[in-house]
Design goal:
binds guanosine-5'-triphosphate, Four Helix Bundle (Hemerythrin (Met), subunit A), binds magnesium ion, Rossmann fold, alpha/beta, Gyrase A, domain 2, 445 residues
Length: 445
């Protein structure tokens, strides 16, 4: 089943494998013959009972021009769970079996239609958190990152073959030029570094950035949390110490997903439960990628405010002056000094004033390295860890080259780097990696 459970306008069921067409014709009575790549109307029917239970369209994709490179049939019927379950039941009775998560894409990979990086991109595309990420994942699905990785691997294999020729035929003047070889390794290394760097941005897009709302009690953290979420999620009250445990919700701002965290007011706890809330809050704030430091426009800065401002020294932060609808008693000049160049934005969470400026600032300030225009972005830890291994091997190769070690040692490092690149695209197959990747897929893709 390629569509989610629950009633919907249409539902899609896919069959893949050598028996796909045969099984399909035992469930489906076409009005015209099922011709390759043609949409054919007909009836879903239990041929043993002869009563149709839905009208549907079917498409037959003969191998190898299909998603999996096997024979495939796709049914598009009404999206009733009852109908879809019946189609599945009849297909199973006719000899099909249920697909495992990601099995269609796995088959596409095993049959050589796509590589592992493209397979990962399929899942990222389905789960895209923004249009920007969808575009990047689609470009990866189209093979852009694979091409890059292949070109790096080819470059390493070329270096390797020169070194190996020099080892094998030392008498024929095939010595390697150390400087030139070193230069070529450095060129690959620079590209590997750039890809590794892009991972922060990729992860930020895929998983979201954690941003904590910090401030002393009653400054309006929960009111702002609700206003940004556009729903009444957190309890708000005029009494300090309202929020005790922290709350976490996702919002999308621009091209980024944020995990927004509302927490107890940092400062003097009025209650043991609040104390625990504050402890947890501090811990979360220290782990967050960014902070919104909320201050109250209607009161002068307090010791507690200054302590919270100090928390942000090592962090990306935006200073938010809340309650600008009230007469200002907060000393702006003093705050300017503390902010040391960070953005200060006046808002009213209660009256929803200036929230767009705040969102704009969040999208500018919190994402990592947005100023770097990466050609390719890697999204996953698997890729980052592999690239780090490659970086290490290439550094090692350079060291060995410079310190005049035997060329065989240099060759060994380059060979291992090239192998890791091969595992990245899946050209070198590893069951462990394959299992890890496809288990994250949904069934039907
Ligand atoms: N005038 C005005 N009042 C606000 C504004 N934002 C919040 N408040 C009020 O400030 C009080 C405290 O708001 P909360 O959102 O509960 O504050 P908090 O920071 O979450 O407080 P704790 O959970 O106790 O730490 C409530 O009475 C809100 O209505 C604002 O922009 N203007
Ligand atoms: Mg609160």
């Amino acid at each position: 089943m390629a569509t989610p459970p629950g009633p919907s306008a249409l539902g899609i069921i896919r069959l893949s494998g050598p028996a796909a067409l045969e099984i399909a014709t035992r469930i489906f009575q076409p009005r015209h013959e099922l011709k390759p790549w043609c949409l054919v109307q007909g009836y879903l029917i239990d041929l043993d009972q002869g009563e149709p239970f839905d009208e549907a369209t079917a498409i037959y994709f003969p191998a190898p021009r299909s998603y999996t490179r096997e024979d495939m049939v796709e049914f598009i019927c009404h999206g009733s769970p009852i109908i879809l379950e019946e189609v599945v039941r009849l297909a199973l009775r006719a000899g099909a079996r249920m697909a495992h998560p990601g099995e269609f894409t796995l088959r596409a990979y095993l049959n050589g239609r796509i590589d592992l990086l493209q397979a990962e991109a399929v899942n990222d595309l389905i789960r895209a958190t923004s249009l920007h990420q969808a575009r990047l994942s689609f470009s990866q699905l189209s093979g852009r990152l694979s091409k890059k990785i292949d070109s790096l691997r080819e470059a390493l294999i070329e270096i390797l073959s020169q070194i190996e020729a020099a080892i094998e035929f030392p008498d024929e003047g095939l010595q390697i030029n150390k400087e030139e070889t070193g230069q070529k390794i450095k060129e690959v290394l620079a590209q590997v570094e750039k890809l590794i760097e892009s991972h922060d941005l990729g992860q930020a897009m895929l998983r979201g950035l954690t941003v904590a709302l910090v401030g002393r009690a009653n400054v309006g953290k929960s009111t702002l949390f609700n206003a940004l979420l556009e729903k009444d999620r957190a309890i708000v009250s005029p009494y300090p110490g309202t929020t005790r445990d922290y709350l976490e919700e996702k919002i999308r701002v621009g091209d980024f997903l944020f995990n927004l965290v509302d927490m107890a007011g940092l400062g003097q706890p009025g209650h043991p439960v609040e104390e625990e809330g504050i402890r947890r809050g501090r811990q979360l704030a220290s782990l967050a990628e960014g902070l919104l430091i909320i201050l109250d426009n209607s009161e002068p800065l307090t010791e507690a405010d200054l302590e919270i401002i100090a928390l942000a020294r090592e962090k990306k932060a935006i200073f938010v002056i809340n309650k600008i609808d009230l007469p200002g008693r907060l000393e702006r000049d003093r705050l300017n000094d503390f902010a040391s160049g960070r953005q200060i934005i006046g808002i009213s969470a209660l009256h929803r004033l200036n929230l767009d400026s705040l969102k704009k600032a969040m999208a500018e300030v919190f994402p990592p390295s947005l100023n770097k225009n990466y050609e390719e972005i890697i999204f996953h830890w698997r890729e980052k860890i592999s690239l780090e291994k490659i970086r290490e091997a290439l550094h090692q190769a350079l060291d060995l080259l410079e310190t005049g070690y035997s060329e065989e040692f240099v060759a060994e490092e380059i060979r291992s780097a090239a192998n890791v690149l091969g595992q990245l695209t899946g050209e070198i197959k590893s069951e462990e990696i394959i299992n890890a990747i496809f288990s994250e897929f949904c069934i039907g893709k």
